[in-house]
């Protein structure tokens, strides 16, 4: 585990308002997190969050990026625009986008490649549905999602960002993978990366996401291959997000 500092990222999804965000920022600034953190607000609030977190160590991320370069793509946002707005990270392949926006493994891999080419650090989300887990296909599904990216990008580029294992059945449901269930998949992800590049695999942060809360964070984060978390619902409450960061720092 040496060489991997814990990382905790907030995925606000489509939540927030300028007023809510300002309250969150005040609480966050008053009690800085003791581990590496990233905040991923909706696009339209990036500037507010960049300004609000200026002078803190927190990183800023977007929740999506276009797989294309700038041009006639109405409603899309290019990787360079995110950098220009102050983001240095971006979430790619979140299961909500895979399911609701039809993002295939290949589209996700193209987004990953585009983000890296522009200089962003991607957080690649992978994870199985409940049906896939019940069919015993968890590791196969996660490997396919990972391999789609590895076909386009060397494993070292995953090390520059992060991988987030997010079982779809645990996202926003209150159901969390047990630390053992999560550790098993995290170890499989690391070993898949190691088959291409052992040095990159050893330093790649693999985050867990899926109903992480202050009450379960520490047990999850104490597993050898869990290097922090991608936090949805609980990240909207600054005190809960900070408590999860504190659990990562222990
Ligand atoms: C997520 O959507 O990335 C997530 C982990 O959500 P939640 O924490 O709400 O399950």
Q: Any key phrases for this structure?
A:
globular; binds phosphoenolpyruvate; 12 helices; 8 strands; 8-stranded parallel sheet; alpha/beta; 250 residues
Describe this structure in words.
β2, α2 (46-52) and β3 form a beta-alpha-beta unit. With 250 residues, the protein is an alpha/beta fold. The protein contains 12 helices and 8 strands. Bound molecules: phosphoenolpyruvate. Phosphoenolpyruvate (PEP) binds at residues 11, 166, 171-172, 209-212, 230-234. The site of phosphoenolpyruvate has 13 residues, from β8.
Summarize the structure.
With about 250 residues, the protein is of the alpha/beta class. It is about 45% helix and about 15% strand.
Overall spatial form:
globular
What is the topology, as strand order, of the major beta sheet?
7-6-5-4-3-2-1-8
Which ligands occur here? phosphoenolpyruvate
**Percent helix range:** 40-55%
Rg from C-alpha positions?
17 Å
N-to-C order of helices and strands: EHEHEHEHHEHHHEHHEHEH
The chain-level structural class is: alpha/beta
What is the typical, i.e. mean, pLDDT?
Answer: 96
Number of strands: 8
Low-confidence stretches: none
Tell me the layout of helices and strands.
Layout: E1 7-11, H1 18-30, E2 36-40, H2 46-52, E3 59-62, H3 79-84, E4 89-92, H4 95-100, H5 105-118, E5 121-126, H6 130-134, H7 138-150, H8 155-160, E6 162-165, H9 179-196, H10 198-203, E7 206-208, H11 214-221, E8 228-231, H12 238-249
Parallel strand pairs: 1-2, 1-8, 2-3, 3-4, 4-5, 5-6, 6-7
The protein binds phosphoenolpyruvate.
